[in-house]
Write a structure and sequence with these properties.
The chain is mainly beta and 272 residues long. Strand 15 and strand 16 form a beta hairpin. The chain is 8% helix and 50% strand.
Length: 272
C-alpha cells in the first residue's frame, strides 16, 4: 500500500500511462525536453500538501517529492513523447513516477513496483500539481514580464542592439528546412526562444527512396532544450544554464524584407 506523502490521493486507472510505461521499458529514443524545472504543489483531498521540486540535466529529471513527513528522491528521464518516467526512492522502497506537462499544471502518476520491478499501474495514483515557481533564472538570461521588467526583455542586453536581438529572437518561432535530393530526405527544425531564458528545438527528418531495389520511407523526430541569453552582441547558449558558449549569429532581410537568422551554418525564417 502506498503511504507517506501519497496518502489521500484519488485512486485512478491510467491506461494511457500504462501504455507509456511500455514505451519506457522498450527503451524510448531522444526527447524534446519540456519545462519541468521548478517547484510544484498539490493538495490532497484530506488536506495533505505534496511538493515536487525538479531540476534538469540534459534529458535527466532529478529532484524530490515530499509531504506528510516523508521524502522521496526522484530520478527520471524524458522520453521521445516529451513525458518523463523514472523512480521516486525512499528508505521504505521505490515508486514509479511519470510526469506530463500541461501549461502551468504537471500531471504526475505514481505506482508501487510489482514483481520484477514492473509498475502496478492498475492501482496507480494521479495528481495534478500546480506550478509554484519556474526555478531560478540564470543570471543574465531573458526574463518574463515583471514590475521592473514589464516587457520581459533581456536584462543582460545593455545596448540597444542587444535589446533588439533579444526581442527579435522571442518574437516568434524560427524554422529551418533542408532537402537533400541525393538522399531523398527533408530535414526541418523549429526553435523557440522563451522569455524565461529557455530555448527548445524540435527536429524532424523524413526520407523517401524509390529505386529498382524497392521503396523506402522513414520518419524520425528529435528534440533538445537548453538556455540562452544575449551578451555584447552575441547569442550565448548553454545546456545546463551555467556554462554559456557563444553561437555566431547574423541577421539579414530576405527579398521581401523579412528577417533571416543565420547561425550554425543554417538559415532560419519566422514560422508558426
Amino acid at each position: 500500500m502506498i503511504d507517506g506523502p501519497l496518502q489521500g490521493l484519488q485512486m485512478v486507472t491510467l491506461g494511457r500511462v500504462f501504455a507509456l510505461v511500455l514505451v519506457l521499458l522498450a527503451g524510448a529514443g531522444q526527447a524534446e525536453a519540456q519545462g519541468f524545472v521548478g517547484s510544484w504543489e498539490y493538495t490532497a483531498p484530506n488536506g495533505t500538501k505534496i511538493s515536487l521540486v525538479l531540476r534538469q540535466d540534459g534529458r535527466r529529471v532529478l529532484g524530490s517529492l515530499s509531504g506528510n513527513g516523508s521524502r522521496f528522491e526522484v530520478e527520471a528521464e524524458i522520453a521521445a513523447d516529451g513525458l518523463f518516467y523514472g523512480t521516486a526512492k525512499a528508505q521504505a522502497g521505490s515508486l514509479f513516477i511519470g510526469g506530463e506537462l500541461n501549461g502551468e499544471q504537471l500531471g504526475v502518476a505514481l505506482a508501487e513496483m510489482a514483481a520484477a520491478g514492473v509498475p502496478d499501474m492498475r492501482n496507480a495514483q494521479e495528481m495534478r500539481m500546480q506550478r509554484v515557481s519556474a526555478g531560478a533564472v540564470t543570471p543574465g538570461a531573458p526574463t518574463g514580464p515583471s514590475p521592473s521588467n514589464p516587457g520581459g526583455s533581456n536584462p543582460s542586453a545593455s545596448s540597444p542592439a542587444d535589446q533588439q536581438l533579444s526581442q527579435l529572437l522571442t518574437s516568434s518561432p524560427w524554422c529551418y528546412m533542408r532537402y537533400s535530393q541525393a538522399m531523398g530526405a527533408t530535414s526541418t527544425e523549429r526553435v523557440v526562444f522563451s522569455r524565461d531564458g529557455r530555448v527548445v528545438s524540435r527536429m524532424q527528418r523524413e526520407s523517401s527512396v524509390n529505386n529498382r531495389e524497392g521503396s523506402y520511407y522513414g520518419n524520425s523526430t528529435d528534440g533538445e532544450q537548453g538556455f540562452w541569453r544575449v551578451q555584447n552582441g552575441n547569442l550565448m547558449l548553454s545546456a545546463d544554464g551555467q556554462n554559456f558558449q557563444p553561437a555566431p549569429i547574423s541577421v539579414a532581410p530576405n527579398s521581401n524584407g523579412a528577417p533571416i537568422i543565420t547561425t550554425g551554418g543554417k538559415e532560419y525564417n519566422r514560422c508558426n
